[in-house]
Amino acid sequence: TIGLKKRGGFEDLVGVGAQVVSIEGDGHRGLVELRGETWSFISPSALTLNDPVIVKSHKGMTLVVEKEAQS
Questions:
Q1: How high is the pLDDT of residue 30?
Q2: Dihedral sign, CA of 29, 31, 32, 38?
Q3: By CB count within 10 A, which of 26, 34, 54, 63 is most buried?
């Protein structure tokens, strides 16, 4: 097992793009779709339905996301 990288953890989701599919309250919480799965999210800024986001980290089983910069 020396030199083998652990796979399948939250670390694999950091930097991955997702899309907002549901908003709760003021837009700082809701659900995103990521790799065909639905995840709860929190965000420092208010998001709207269908916003593209990037996973920055996680708190427990909840993803911390930020809106993807538009180019």
A1: 98
A2: positive
A3: 63
